[in-house]
Amino acid sequence: MTAWVLALVLWLALAPPLPGAETGRRRAPILNVDGVVNGASFAAAPDNFVAPNSIISIFGLDLSLQTKQVSESDLVRGRLPLVLGGVQVRIGEIPAPLYFVSPLQINAQVPSEITAGEWPVSVVRENLSAENAATVKVRPAAPGLFRFVTHTDYTLVGRGDPQGSTPARPGEIVLLFGTGFGATAPAVFAGELPDFLAPVVLPARARLADTMLPDHLLHYVGQAPGFAGLYQMNLELPADLAAGDLEIRIEIDGASSQEGVKIAVGE
């Protein structure tokens, strides 16, 4: 991917929707009830499922004393750090790789070793453990889609908003990005920035405007090279597709991505 796409993903996917001010408070972190969600869909409870290797967002108070997004200098042997800005996240007893920390939100990745079930999530900041533990519900796949679609040259699909976006055309291949698509072969481990393609293991389908698309239109579903926890789908639009803003949903192992993600299709 280009540097532009990296910046886009970091801004749209990993930056907090509600940034908090810097804080000098020294009390222990407090986690919101049901405050751990899929980092792409942000689906609320009771639908806040995630999967191993998912990007997740954790909401609360005093989670960090600073706002810090991971940079190349923070990587540890080429992988995401387990401590960022003095903050550590544990799911069960396993440290989670970190993308972003702030007073109100943390973006982390579910460790590869986590299995299906309900797991406690704890936050430690400068050796102060959170006053409470949240829980996260894990299943083999919990797909969520980020709310942008690109052409194969990574320019945005849309109708001029954001400025410069253009509609997709029938028969075109478009790229969708998400998280929680599940295990891949070859395996990619949490924190790893893969430089190879890794298709998902579980069956994946795409539903466009309430129509299930044939499998041959899904050219690739798997890890996005160069990014930890980010998945992509390369989807060929049907040649006879009518124009419109068409909702797209991904279904993996019986779990569906959230409503509301649309592909702008032109004539």
Task: Give a short synopsis of this structure.
With 267 residues, this protein is mostly beta strands.
Low-confidence stretches: 1-23
CATH class of the largest domain: Mainly Beta
Number of helices: 1
* Cα-atom radius of gyration: 18 Å
What is the succession of H and E elements?
Answer: HEEEEEEEEEEEEEEEEEEEEE
Q: Assign an overall shape.
A: elongated
How does the major sheet shape up? Answer: 6 strands, mixed
Give the SSE map.
Elements: H1 3-14, E1 30-38, E2 49-50, E3 55-61, E4 68-69, E5 87-91, E6 94-95, E7 98-101, E8 105-109, E9 117-125, E10 128-129, E11 134-138, E12 144-151, E13 173-179, E14 198-199, E15 204-208, E16 211-212, E17 218-223, E18 231-236, E19 244-252, E20 255-256, E21 262-265
Parallel strand pairs: 2-11
Antiparallel strand pairs: 1-3, 3-8, 4-7, 5-6, 5-9, 7-8, 9-10, 9-11, 12-13, 13-18, 14-17, 15-16, 15-19, 17-18, 19-20, 19-21
Notable traits:
single chain; 267 residues; mainly beta; Immunoglobulin-like; 2 domains; 6-stranded mixed β-sheet; 5-stranded antiparallel β-sheet; 1 helix; 21 strands; 39% strand; elongated; disordered N terminus
Written description of the protein model:
By secondary structure, the chain is mainly beta. It has 2 domains: 3-138, Immunoglobulins (Immunoglobulin-like), CATH 2.60.40; 144-265, Immunoglobulin-like (Sandwich). It is built from 1 helix and 21 strands. It starts with a helix and ends with a strand.
